[in-house]
Amino acid sequence: MPAAVATHVTPPADSTSARTTAPETTRFLTRPEGRIAYDVVGDGPLVVCVPGMGDLRAVYRFLAPGLVAAGFRVATMDLRGHGDSDATFGSYDDVAAGGDIVALVAELGGSAAVVGNSMGAGAAAWAAAEAPELVRALVLIGPFVRNAPIGKVAELSFRLALLRPWGAAAWIAWYARLYPGRRPSDLDEHRARIRAWLRRPGRWRAFAATTRTSHAPVAARLDDVRAPTLVVMGGRDPDFPDPAAEAAHVAERLGGRAVIVPEAGHYPQAQYPEIVGPAVRDFLEKVGLRA
User: Could you write out the DSSP letters of every residue in the chain?
Assistant: First the structure.
């Protein structure tokens, strides 16, 4: 594979985080054990956006409008048991989510670029390996495509923190820590949406199941990925000991390019959409997805 190229992008000094809201009409994809919630906005080449564990499709509330304005049809989906998706499934891991991505692209017709954040990036990579005819390009943001190097003590501490009755509060608190640097002006509102989701029947059980996901099945399929790939990583992402090194590793494995947003954390598309949006649009155009 060609050598990976990393680009460091510095946020403009006068950048803002004003929210742009696209019209939303929730639809449902029927799967064997339940339904997956998604929205579709716009016309043109299809882009499917997948959030990570413990998050909602609204994490793309800043990125999606720019893609729609550029002439893309954008679908944002919730993971199993997350948001408006059902919590009736038997599995909540990368492979299951990857299968949902493949099914959604097939449902919407044609092929798509898939944007995945965190665990959603692992699911997107699995989908690209499983159905190369449907996944034309990948944008992997803060990607978990292999198990992070975490010690047994740290892993146990994480499990204990998420035990009830304090588990939901622990996750909401940790979620805020994943936003070093500039925070979206509506972060409290977004966290309230996550808190409300976790209170719905069956959702905590589904979330707990998702936290047990191993990314080993995705790592085993990386050599099968043929889709052009852009890796976007926050330079201060707390989920990785060395975010830039992890981005370079993923980009090299997939023959892609890495863009580092130095001040961002795990959600650069929500923190610095004025950087991530143009980078994604430029990448999609260069790989032939012209609006």
Answer: -PPPEEEE-PPPTT-----------EEEEEETTEEEEEEEE-SSSEEEEE--TT--GGGGTTHHHHHHHTT-EEEEEPPTTSTTS-S--S--SHHHHHHHHHHHHHHH-S-EEEEEETHHHHHHHHHHHH-TTTEEEEEEES--SS-----HHHHHHHHHHTSTTTHHHHHHHHHHHT--SSPPTTHHHHHHHHHHHHTSTTHHHHHHHHTT---HHHHTTGGG--S-EEEEEETT-TTSSSHHHHHHHHHHHTT-EEEEETT--S-HHHH-HHHHHHHHHHHHHHTT---
* Residue in this structure with the two tokens 């993923």, named with its chain if needed: 250
pLDDT tens profile 130-166: 999 999 999 999 999 999 766 554 555 666 666 666 6
Residue 164 pLDDT: 63
Rounded CA-CA distance 50/65 in Å is: 15
- φ/ψ (deg, to 5) at 185: -65, -20
- How confident is the model at residue 1, as a pLDDT? 39
Instruction: Please tell me the least confidently modeled range out of 16-30, 32-46, 52-66, 142-156.
Output: 16-30
Domain count, the chain: 1
Let me know if residue 291 belongs to a domain.
Answer: no
What is the rounded distance in angstroms from the CA atom of residue 119 to the CA atom of residue 142? Answer: 9
**Token duo for residue 85:** 């998706």
pLDDT digits (tens, 9 = 90+) for 211-224: 999 999 999 999 99
CATH number, domain of 201, equals 3.40.50.1820
Helix axes 187-198, 167-177, angle to 10 degrees: 150
| Domain-embedded: residue 188 | yes
Say yes or no to pLDDT of 17 above 50.
no
Q: Domain containing 166: what range?
A: 5-10+19-286
Residue 250 CA to residue 245 CA, distance in Å, equals 9
